[in-house]
Task: structure prediction
Amino acid sequence: MGVDVDGDGKPDFHLTLKSIGLIIAAVFTLGSMYVKLQMDIEDAKMLPPAAIDRTEYDLNHAWMLDHVKDLEQDVKDLRSHVEDLQKDLYSKKDR
Result:
C-alpha cells in the first residue's frame, strides 16, 4: 500500500503489513516503558529522603585519610628507589 503525503499522485512511501506491525510494536514498547517509568517515579516519591549521617561521613573521611597515607608511603618508596637508581647511575659514570 503506497501513501501519498505531498499530494503529487505518486506514493512517497509504502506500508506493508510487516512495517505496520513494527510501528505498532514500537509504539506499544515506548508506551509501556513510559508507564513503568511513571510507576517507578511514584514509588520513589513515597520513599523517605536519603540522608547522609555523621557515621557515613566519618567512614568516608577515614577511608580518604588512609588512602592519602598509603599514597604518601608509595611516594616515599618511589623516591628512595629513584635515589638508589641515581647512585647506581653516578657510580657507572665514574668508571
